[in-house]
């Protein structure tokens, strides 16, 4: 099995070379590879691996889950001869954790961080012979708790909420030729209220006085055709997307905006030229949508929007963090929508851009999150900050992402409730993300012990089972009003840290449920359990109704979408089979009505 699809669908060029597939591979348990120069042409690695699947996964062809903190990859590359004369960029989708890259025995560079994309210009290290040699060394210290590793377990066998580790390459590796003058990046910011799209162009050196053509179309109709003569002070530009009052009226209605019910997208192309010679051409897209919080509610496109999210861990039985195929992303989103959810909280994982692309196309809200470390230290601050700089840079243009969640349940900041230093870090990462991205909401610490935050996100699994009537009544009562919620202490944690209070931000129940329901002979655990489909649906309806009867809860995220390894609390099995009739789950989710939530005007159909 090979992941062949284009890995960066938000910024596409016609020419590229997929490097997924069979590579040489070896463990370096004695850390001798660098000393013994395993990066040389004459050194062969003893195993084979199927990239981009981590060696712990079945699809890698290895499937070993023991501790191997240092691994090596090697392969030959045949670069098309017609690419000679261009700059050759080597891209890595994601590699966990510390990567060193060699081309033709020469050290190219390194990258630290296991969740985000990075690249190197390897042009000057190519021989342009028949074959080039690429070697990659990766170190992923299994027990280093300062590393943002999320749900990856520091022990050999998965247990409780912790899963099998991922070491090394786990997203696509690929090559791309570009001219000496090329478009490095375009940052697109929708300005819904004025009907404009703002663009910031990052171009390579030497582009001054070149021509940059921008073409924007909607459903085949050309809207913008503009040619910019590149000057240092002209790398930002706003484009109107309507030309008269009729267009403007339609734009501010339901016609051109992006939301889960109508995921409208604009196609855009960028062409860089020097007189009559084309230097670069990129295809992209954007969605016109606006997110903000007001009056205790989240607004999407200036209308209150009730989010019905599902917690999605992004694991697969045969690929672990790597989806076996591109169709798996599509199926996950469609199945979640069939269950009556309009989005997901992507939990403790920076998901592959292919998932975000399909969320954009199919209409599915995404809350972006990053793997968390376990402890707090200066290294923790360094690692987490670096990851978030790269996350926002990579994923800024995806309309499906409406919330960033940098911290979860005080992971990595275990003393935040009373420790001012850790509170400062929570505030700092909150403000850092806002300084990079003014278009989205940010949750400072999802679950409890929040500082400054745009959403008050609360986790609670104390609903009990149907026999525990008193426990359930307490759960429902604690959600009843804003005052009840803010006074509660889920998991014996206060909602806000010392010296911080609720400032009117929307309140959402962002983890709850976790009802365990095993299919067949599988065994595992959930926060509560149901013996069959009927009992599960009764329990699911019971907890959803408690939320819908609240006058303060303005959206939710149910735990969870699928089973993961020993966790059996998914709505689907680990291999993506429905545990019960999806229509019945959808009917429960769709029982929402404005009067059962709040007197204010919500409308999921608008």
Notes on the protein architecture:
The protein has three domains: 17-177, Sandwich (Jelly Rolls); 183-286, Immunoglobulins (Immunoglobulin-like, Sandwich), CATH 2.60.40; 306-597, TIM Barrel, CATH 3.20.20. The protein contains ten helices and 34 strands. It is globular and about 75 Å long. The model is unreliable at 593-601 (pLDDT under 50).
Using brief descriptors, characterize the structure shown.
606 residues; 8-stranded parallel beta sheet; 6-stranded antiparallel beta sheet; Immunoglobulin-like; Jelly Rolls; 34 strands
Looking at CATH, which topology of the largest domain would you report?
A: TIM Barrel
Largest sheet data:
8 strands, parallel
CATH class of the largest domain: Alpha Beta
The tally of helices reads 10
Chain-averaged pLDDT:
93
Low-confidence parts lasting 5 or more residues at pLDDT below 50?
593-601
Distance between the termini: 42 Å
Shape: globular
Helix content bin: 10-25%
| DSSP summary, beta strand count | 34
Assign the structural class, choosing from mainly alpha, mainly beta, alpha/beta, alpha+beta, or little secondary structure: alpha+beta
Which strand order spans the largest sheet, edge to edge or round the barrel?
29-28-27-26-25-34-31-30
**Cα gyration radius (Å):** 25 Å
């Amino acid at each position: 099995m090979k992941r062949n699809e284009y890995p960066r669908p938000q910024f596409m060029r016609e020419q590229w070379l997929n490097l997924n597939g069979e590579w040489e591979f070896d463990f370096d348990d004695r850390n001798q590879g660098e000393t013994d120069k395993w990066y040389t042409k004459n050194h062969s690695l003893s195993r084979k691996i199927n990239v981009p699947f981590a060696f712990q996964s079945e699809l890698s062809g290895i499937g070993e889950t023991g501790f191997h903190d240092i691994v090596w990859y090697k392969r030959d590359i045949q670069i098309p001869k017609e690419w000679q004369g261009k700059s050759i960029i080597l891209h890595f989708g994601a590699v966990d954790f510390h990567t060193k890259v060699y081309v033709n025995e020469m050290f190219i560079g390194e990258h630290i961080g296991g969740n985000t994309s990075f690249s190197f210009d390897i042009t000057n290290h190519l021989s342009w012979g028949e074959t080039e040699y690429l070697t990659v060394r990766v170190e992923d210290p299994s027990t280093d708790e300062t590393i943002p590793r999320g749900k990856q377990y520091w022990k050999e066998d998965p247990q409780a909420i912790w899963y099998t580790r991922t070491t090394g390459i786990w997203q696509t590796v690929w090559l791309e030729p570009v001219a000496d003058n090329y478009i490095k990046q375009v940052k697109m910011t929708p300005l819904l209220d004025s009907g404009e799209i703002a663009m910031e162009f990052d171009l390579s050196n030497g582009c001054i006085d070149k021509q940059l053509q921008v073409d924007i179309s909607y459903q085949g109709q050309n809207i913008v055709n503009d040619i910019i003569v590149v000057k240092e002070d002209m790398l930002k530009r706003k484009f109107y997307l309507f030309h008269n009052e009729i267009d403007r009226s339609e734009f501010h209605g339901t016609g051109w905006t992006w939301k889960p019910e109508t995921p409208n997208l604009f196609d855009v192309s960028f062409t860089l030229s020097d007189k009559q010679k084309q230097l670069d051409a990129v295809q992209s897209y954007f969605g016109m949508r606006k997110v903000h919080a007001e009056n205790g509610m989240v607004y999407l496109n200036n209308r209150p929007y009730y989010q019905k999210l599902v917690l999605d861990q992004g694991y697969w039985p045969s690929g672990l963090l790597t989806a076996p195929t591109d169709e798996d992303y599509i199926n996950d989103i469609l199945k979640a929508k069939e269950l009556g959810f309009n989005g997901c909280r992507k939990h403790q994982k920076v998901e592959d851009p292919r998932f975000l692309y399909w969320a954009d196309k199919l209409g599915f809200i995404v809350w972006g999150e990053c793997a968390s470390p376990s402890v707090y230290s200066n290294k923790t601050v360094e690692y987490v900050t670096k990851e978030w700089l790269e996350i926002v840079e990579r994923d800024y243009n995806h309309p499906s992402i409406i919330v960033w969640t940098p911290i979860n349940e005080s992971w990595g900041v275990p003393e935040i409730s009373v420790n001012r230093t850790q509170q400062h870090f929570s505030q700092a990462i909150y403000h850092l993300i806002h300084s990079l991205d003014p278009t989205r909401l940010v949750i400072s610490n999802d679950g409890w012990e929040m500082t400054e935050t745009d959403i008050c996100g609360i986790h609670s699994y104390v609903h009990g089972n149907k026999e525990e009537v008193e426990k359930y009544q307490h759960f429902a009562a604690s959600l009843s009003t804003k005052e009840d919620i803010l006074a509660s202490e889920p998991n014996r944690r206060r909602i806000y840290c010392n010296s911080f209070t609720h400032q009117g931000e929307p309140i959402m129940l962002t983890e709850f449920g976790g009802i365990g329901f095993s299919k067949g002979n599988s065994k595992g655990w959930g926060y509560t359990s149901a013996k069959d489909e009927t009992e599960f649906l009764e329990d699911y309806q019971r907890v959803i109704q408690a939320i819908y009867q609240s006058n303060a809860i303005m959206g939710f995220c149910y735990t969870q979408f699928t089973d993961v390894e020993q966790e059996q609390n998914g709505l689907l099995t680990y291999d993506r089979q429905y545990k019960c009739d999806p229509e019945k789950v959808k009917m429960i989710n769709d029982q929402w009505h404005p009067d059962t939530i709040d007197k204010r005007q919500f409308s999921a159909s608008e």
